[in-house]
Specification:
With 508 residues, the chain is an alpha+beta fold. It is 64% helix and 12% strand.
């Protein structure tokens, strides 16, 4: 009875998640795998209840009382239909498990993904046909005795069963390996790794219990006599100690609880991220008006400085070198003014405009702009060999990267000039693009790391740093659907990991 309650509960939770849109294609396949697993267990119990062979031993296997066994025995469903359901959902379980692993591990183009999933579905479809009771009976009636003997026919199906058993075992192994691969190659962001780890634990627990109980499926489970026009149904050959099967419904429930816990863990992580982002967003919203006023004030001051430089140019006409330096100051003021004006106009809209952009091209342009500003600094840029396309705002996203690089430059002020080094690297990992900015500065204390993205928080004097740069970066990255994380060791340096959803890979 417990397993049927678990099945109802699982369906209810799956429907809830579906309507709440808390799913991806990978998790949908995981839910389909869990549903198929519970249907398979239910079919086995009902089939055995209808089999006289297990009439006196079913309680020893599943702990089912006689009254429940009798009710299951008279359910209006034939054993032939149960065999079909058992085979159908056994193959659905294997197919969904492998597909979920593929979706977690790789990000492929639609056409390639469709072809791969179709090819993987062919062995499953063939097995459902070959092990269908009607197809088996049709073959036997048409081949025996003119083309094949009864013994040879049975031997051929035994060989087929060994082949399909190997293929199905490979499906389970491949799905597990793909999820391990997804975990190993996941970006170094705690939230993502924790989610994949919980999914992997859930996946393995379900696969182990399934394989122990149902490794032999699919199978025909019938014997046919052409002379007597009679079909005999075979008992399910359960291996292992019957006491293990008494625990099977509870093991199934435990597997489901592990699955639910992984969903709960993921939801809690997502909520904690949202809560953290909401705190940061509230602080930024409260600072938005101040930043606009500050921007307006600085723009006015810059206009005043530029007016003074024009006056100084007239006073120093006889000193060309001084005039040249004054013009440099004027150009820098003009550049700062234009940037402030652009930022001000953007904050008035308060809207990020996402469009498909090639990350390498975006960063190449940013490197060129920063090269003139940081000529004496060694910045090593290593782009990914694959042309990753992401959804990004061409203005805001480079600004976030530039803020992080500027933060790294400031951190290197205490390092000897010849030893200063900043490394920027992009890597495509599964469905994500990871951008890492590393410096060999003094590092950040552990107690400061949890506050580093909060507005107006800075370990530097407020006279020289307002503590807005990294909080703005955090807001920009999360608004893009990405994540930002920092790892730092005192005396060794810091590494900022930016993870963005991968849209596609452009053809080069």
């Amino acid at each position: 009875m417990f397993i049927f309650l678990v099945l109802i509960l699982f369906i209810a939770i799956s429907i809830f998640l579906f309507f709440q849109r808390k799913y991806t294609k990978a998790t949908l396949f995981m839910l389909l795998m869990g549903f198929s697993y519970l249907v398979v267990v239910s079919c086995i119990i009902i089939y055995m209840s209808k089999d006289a062979y297990y009439y006196y031993s079913l309680e020893a296997y599943f702990g089912i009382r006689k009254d429940l066994q009798n009710r299951l025995m008279f359910l209006p469903i034939t054993r032939e239909s149960l065999i079909r359901l058992l085979n159908l959902f056994s193959m659905t379980f294997l197919y969904a498990g492998l597909c979920s692993g593929i979706y977690f591990a790789f990000n492929m183009q639609f056409k390639r993904r469709f072809i791969l999933l179709a090819l993987l579905g062919v062995p499953c479809l063939l097995q459902m046909i070959m092990y269908d009771p009607d197809f088996y009976t049709y073959l036997y009636y048409n081949l025996y005795p003119d083309y094949i003997s009864s013994q040879a026919f049975a031997s051929a199906y035994e060989t087929l069963h060994r082949i399909t058993l190997t293929v199905n075992t490979l499906y389970i192994a491949a799905g597990t390996v793909l999820l391990v691969y997804a975990l190993v190659n996941a970006p170094k962001v705690r939230q993502i790794r924790s989610n994949i780890l919980m999914i992997l634990i859930s996946y393995i627990s379900v696969q182990i219990t399934y394989y122990y109980m149902n490794y032999w499926a699919p199978d025909v489970l019938i014997k046919v006599s052409k002379a007597a026009h009679f079909t005999r149904y075979l008992p399910i050959n359960l291996v292992g100690n019957p006491s293990i099967y008494v625990l099977l419904p509870y093991i199934s429930g435990l597997c489901l609880l592990v699955s639910l816990y992984s969903i709960y863990k993921y939801t809690r992580i997502q909520n904690s991220i949202k809560n953290q982002e909401s705190v940061i967003s509230e602080n930024i919203d409260s600072a938005l008006f101040t930043s606009r006023v500050f921007s307006h004030y600085i723009k006015n001051e810059l206009l005043g400085i530029m007016a003074q430089t024009e006056f100084l140019e007239h006073m120093c006409e006889r000193s060309p070198e001084v005039v040249e330096e004054i013009r440099v100051i004027e150009q820098r003021c003009r550049k700062v003014y234009d940037r402030l004006d652009a930022v001000h106009q953007k904050t008035l809209k308060s809207k990020i405009e996402l469009k498909p952009v090639m990350l390498n091209g975006l960063l190449d342009n940013l490197m060129k702009d920063m090269h003139s500003e940081y000529k004496q600094l060694q910045i090593e840029y290593t782009p990914s060999g694959r042309q990753a396309v992401i959804m990004a705002d061409p203005y805001y996203f480079p600004q976030a990267i530039e803020n992080i690089v500027s933060n790294a430059v400031e951190a290197l002020e205490s390092i000897p000039e010849k030893s200063r080094r900043i490394e920027i690297e992009t890597t495509v990992r599964n469905k994500w693009v990871e951008l890492v900015v590393t410096d060999n500065g003094p590092g950040i204390a552990e107690e400061e790391l949890k506050h580093i993205f909060q507005p107006f928080y800075s370990s530097k004097p407020t006279a020289t740093n307002w503590g807005m740069g990294l909080s703005i970066c955090h807001t920009i990255i999360t608004a893009h659907g990405g994540k930002i994380n920092v790892e730092s060791t005192l005396g060794e340096g810091s590494a900022f990991h930016i993870v963005m959803p991968l849209l596609s890979i452009a053809n080069t």
